[in-house]
Description:
Layout: H1 2-6, E1 10-12, E2 16-17, E3 23-24, E4 27-29, H2 41-53, H3 72-91
Antiparallel strand pairs: 1-4, 2-3
Amino acid sequence: xxxxxxxxxxxxxxxxxxxxxxxxxxxxxxxxxxxxxxxxxxxxxxxxxxxxxxxxxxxxxxxxxxxxxxxxxxxxxxxxxxxxxxxxxxxxxxxxxxxxxxxxxxxxxxxxxx
Length: 114
């Protein structure tokens, strides 16, 4: 948590008392991580993702995986279109009746493909 706060990805909110009276400090995302481009940030974001899903019923996690073979121009187009869609949803106001969701999109070289 300290690393995420130090890098500006999370911010601590006001302390509160938990159900058993223990002091709790809730942390909230700052919005920087959704499109972060910093050395080593991928490992931090993946570790954060794994922590967020720990203990969740696998049936509530939507996962898709697709192998592609793209040249640099097509890879860039794919990335830019994903980014545009993410920006569109990031800039929309929250739905008043919405439920909190997290989204992780990873585009990476496939070491298994030839």
